[in-house]
Amino acid sequence: MTKQLFVAIAIIFSLLAMNCQGHGVLPASESMDQKRLIQFPDTKAYKTLILDPHTHSTFSDGHVWPTIRIAEALKDGLDAIAITEHLEWQPHLADIPHQDRNRSYNIAVDANGTNELMVISGAEITRNAPAGHINALFLQDANLLFKDELLTASLEICAAFYAEKSQILRLEISNHSDADFQPQNKSQYTFTDSTDFLSIKPHGTRTIGVKTGNRVKQISLQFEVLNALVKPKQTAQLTLSSRVESRD
Asked: Within 10 Å of residue 203's Cβ, how many Cβ atoms?
């Protein structure tokens, strides 16, 4: 009898844990926490809405799944919450690889279910020189913010030269952003010391050898950036060009 009771209690606690921490839909009856409740009165002319306009999850530099953000908003009695993951800063990318910058928002919407909480699509955009952060709300597609201008500002050939008496062109590609970009070679050239798949670490430089046949005075390489989408299921295309230095 004692053993059966222990098993029953264990099952109950397991079900409760799954309900609280699962990836599914949160119940419409998710209760507010009176100690956490945020309240402001309506005015005579306007209805007051309580909004958290800036949130992160494990899909950028947060430490919880998007469903937890929805659960927190419901407990706080919020009227709306914006999902604003970093576009460029992705410290958990090695553990949670994803190409779609809308993924966190979609999970949050699914978790919200039939609750009256409004879930707003957003993104935090980081820019360098001059540095700044922009919190964008009411987006239709966060992937569209990954435009060629951003990629060309982030990735550049900082050096291109032939070593003495060599026909192999040495290229140094620098990444000026917080994103770990993954370009795939789509050019006519092949690399000598790498496959066509590159990984260029945040604020790092990658050196590659390029077989050009005869020596060239200028180089252009076409890439498909595998972890940057310009719209759903379409990756960004990038061309990097540079003059070749004379180091003989």
From this structure: 12
Query: Is 1.20.140 the CATH classification of the domain at 154-243?
Result: no
Q: Where are the domains of the chain?
A: 34-145, 154-243
How far is Cα 246 from Cα 144, in angstroms, rounded to an integer? 39
Q: Is 88 left (phi over 0), alpha (psi -120 to 50) or beta?
A: alpha
Average pLDDT per run of 10 along the chain, which is 248 residues long? 48 43 56 80 92 95 95 94 89 83 95 95 77 85 73 89 89 90 94 92 94 92 87 82 84
Identify whether the C-beta of residue 143 lies closer than 8 Å to the C-beta of residue 104: no
What distance in Å separates the CA atoms of residue 145 and residue 172, rounded to the nearest whole number? 26
Q: Which residues contact 236 (CB under 8 A, 6 or more apart)?
A: 146, 147, 148, 151, 224, 225, 228, 229, 230
In angstroms, the CA 52 to CA 91 distance is 23
- Of the options 3.40.50.10800, 3.20.20.140, 3.40.190.10, 3.40.50.1000, the CATH number for the domain spanning 34-145: 3.20.20.140
